Structure formats: structure tokens, C-alpha cells
Amino acid sequence: MRAILVGVHKKGETKSEALASINELAGLVEAVDGKVLGKLIQKRDVPDPSTYIGKGKVQDLNLLVQGTKADTVVFDDPLTPSQVKELEKRLNARVMDRTDLVLEIFTRRAKTREAKLQVELARLQHELPRLYGRGKALSRQAGGIGGRGPGEQEAEIRRRILKKRIHKIKEELEEIKKRRREQRKRRIKEVSKEGNFVRVAIVGYTNVGKSTLMKALTGRDVFKKDMLFATLDTTTSSRFVYPDLKILFTDTVGFINKLPTELIEAFKATLEEVQEADLILHVVDASDPKWLEKIETVNGILKKLDLEGVRQILVFNKVDRLVSSPEEAEHLEHPMMVGKVPNLFVSAERKWNLDRLLEMIRDLHLSEKEKG
User: Fold this and answer.
1) What is the pTM of this model?
2) How is residue 209 annotated by DSSP?
3) Which residues fall within 8 angstroms of residue 358, CB to CB, at 6 or more apart?
4) Are 274 and 252 spatial neighbours (Cβ–Cβ below 8 Å)?
5) Domain match, 95 and 144 both
6) CATH code for position 331
């Protein structure tokens, strides 16, 4: 993929926010081994219904595509079927939006049967509404008056096929969900025989080091790589922290800004593990200049999953990129900006402050038990 990226600086949005969003889009392109050849940002209050960015800007974009020999144009916001069709006609290049790109990444990353089904479901749910616009457009081309044209009939057949497949996938995922519940019950039953335990979910923006932290805390070898959405599958591992407490850690898929609703819905089966948690470790990249905005993004997604009431510890990871020792981290200003939420600076890579993190988990769990 040789791509030009297109963003719109909307009303109520700062220029830096628009730039941050399109830079993240560049990271998503790189995650599918694509190359970014150029970026175009337009300040616009209301998207153009036909081309999203307006005819004049499309002409500029066309020159950029021709000059760079790009084969793909990726928009940072959702496009309608008619906008995609019109833009592809004018640009003579493949046109995608952010959702298309994220779905492409998830399709490539999915390894387990469950993850593959969830991603397929998200793709089909994304494609289904687009077929309605496509069918009408094809019908108009046929020039019929009254009744259905061949294009609309073709789209209706495709819609029926998609709906049937969506129904089948949902049934399969429901079966997997039931098996997961049984596995959780057995796991909790086994763990409870060994004494006191606490369930901890590790969540965060993608590429903040969640898998590295999981490995550092549990010793379990997990796939980790410095890229967006390196892992999609939920994994659970346990360890005894003290003789009287066992911790069940669950790692989850990373979040991003503008995470497609289809993916949130599709991955709810996996994220049920988070919904069962007693405590959330919300991992943050302390070295990321946009760390505060990303905390808000993750909290927004947790709210959609009805998890805003679960207690959190903010884990500021990768602090070794800012300071040379864990003691120096105490002077950083991050905690001043997150209020009363318990927090700690760590380096999962260098294993800084992991003992303190385990103590925090234990203390919070014991304090909750005393309240209960």
C-alpha cells in the first residue's frame, strides 16, 4: 500500500488534535506494511456530502496522488458508500477510511478461531449498511422506473447472504462465550481452593506495553512487538504474590481513538474477561506526549462497556524513556493531572517498581474486602 492520508480539522477541534489523529492513522498504515507518501489536512466545519472534502480539495488531492504515484487514499473519518464511489472515480485510486484500515489490521492479526470470527463479524457489520447505498446507485444506473433494477436485486441478494452469515457467526460466538464462562467458573473454582484471589484486567491504548507488563508480572511468554495491535487475543495467567493471595491477570486487545463501534461490539465476548475483573490496571505510555488524551479515550471505551465503576490503578509504563532511575520518576508531574486515581511509574522492560505494583494490587484488594 502506497498511501496518501486525508484528515479534516473540524470545528471545536484543535490543530494539534487533528495532527495527532492523522499521525496515528500513519501508524495504522505502517501496521499493514504500507508506506505513507503524503498527508493532506483541510479545515472544514461540515463534511461535503459528495466528496467529504469538497471538489476543490479533491483536485489538489488528485494532483498529489498522481505526483506520488499513490495507489490508496485513506481518510481519517468514516465515509459513506456514495463518497467512496465518487472519490475513487475522481482519484483513480483505492479509497479507504479509518474503519476499513483498522479492520484490515485486525484481519491480519487474528490468530485464534474466536478472534477470526469476531473480526469477520465486524467486517460484515461494517459492509452491510454500505450495500444499501450501492444497490440504489446501481439501480439508478439501470434507468428503470418503478420496481427494482438489476443493481438493487444484486445488492438485496448480497444483503441476505451477509445477514445469514452474521447470524451464524453470532451463534458460534455465543457458543464460545458459553465455553469461556464455563472455563472461568472452573478456573475460579480451582483458584478458590488455594485461598484468596483477585482478578485483574490489563487494559490500555494500543502499543503501551501491556503484553510486556503481562510477561514481567507472570513470567508467561507472550507475543510482543513495537507496533499497533500486535496482539488481539485475550490471555489469562496467574501467580501467587504472597502466600495468602493469588492474582489472575488478563491481558486484552489495545484501544485506539475512534475505535470502530463494530469492533467494540464484536469483541465484547473477549472483553467479558474484563467485565469480570475486580481491578483494572490501566496501562499508559508515560513517554507519550498525548498520554492524558489517551487515558480519556480508554476511559470512554470502558464506559461503553459499562466498566467505569471498576477500580483502577494507572500504571505509567515506559518511564525509563524519561528518567534514568525509578527514584527520579517520583518527580514527574503526571500524577498531578489524574486526581485521586491510584497510580505508579513502572518500566515493564526493566522491571522497575513491579514489586510496588503488586503491593498496590494487594492493598486495594484487602481494603475492598474490609469494606465488603
Assistant:
1) 0.75
2) S
3) 217, 241, 247
4) yes
5) no
6) 3.40.50.300
- Per-residue pLDDT of 186-209, as tens digits, reads 766 666 666 678 889 899 998 899
Sign of CA dihedral 352, 358, 359, 364: positive
Sign of CA dihedral 262, 266, 267, 271: positive
Which structural domain range is residue 52 located in?
2-105
Instruction: Say if 292 falls within a structural domain.
Output: yes
Q: Are residues 356 and 239 in the same domain?
A: yes
Measured CA to CA, the distance from residue 123 to residue 190 in angstroms comes to: 38
Of 81-85, 148-152, 184-188, least confident by mean pLDDT is 148-152
Of residues 299, 297, 202, the one with CA closest to residue 257: 297
Find where cell 494507572 sits.
314
- 288 alpha-carbon distance from chain centroid: 17
Strand partners of residue 95: 73
Beta-strand pair 197-204/72-75: unpaired
Burial 336-372 (b: 16+ CB within 10 A, else e): eebeeebbbbbbbbeebbbeebbebbbebbeeeeeee
- Has residue 324 been placed in a domain? yes
* DSSP per-residue codes, 25-72: HHHHHHHTT-EEEEEEEEE-SS-BTTTBS-HHHHHHHHHHHHHHT-SE
Q: Do 227 and 358 fall into the same domain?
A: yes
Same domain (yes/no): 367, 276: yes
137: helix, strand or coil: helix
Residue with cell 461490539: 265
How, if at all, do strands 72-75 and 2-9 pair?
Answer: parallel
When pLDDT is averaged across residues 95-117 and rounded to a whole number, the result is 85
In whole angstroms, give the CA distance from residue 197 to residue 241: 10
Q: Is residue 176 part of a domain?
A: no
Q: Is residue 145 over pLDDT 60?
A: no
On whether the CB atoms of residues 317 and 329 are closer than 8 A, the answer is no
